[in-house]
Amino acid sequence: MSKYLFEANYVGDGIKGLMREGGTKRRDAVVEALKSVDGSLESFYYAFGETDVVGVFDIPDQANAVALSLMINSTGAVNLHLKPLMSAEDLDAAARKTPSYRAPGQ
Fold this sequence. Notes:
By secondary structure, the chain is of the alpha+beta class. The chain has one domain: 2-Layer Sandwich (Alpha-Beta Plaits). The protein contains 4 helices and 4 strands, in the order βααββαβα. The protein has helices spanning 13-21, 23-35, 62-74, 88-95; strands at residues 2-10, 40-46, 53-59, 78-85.
């Protein structure tokens, strides 16, 4: 399973739907959407300011994460952004690799 940080903003009718349904029903809708791609919700928080909702979910692979993001964003009611998360061990493994690269102009 891969972990993703998600940030979402309600847009237009999405705001009206949130106000009508309430926060727990929208969270439940996220749980059901994640189940449809064999994922699970780790955390879910409402916020205010630049971002309306933040949280973390587990999902089997990138294809399922992108499919879910595309489906949610296609509604026009929510603007969802995903960020893949790495463990400290993932970063250790990356730091041991030695890719080659030439900087611009060098």
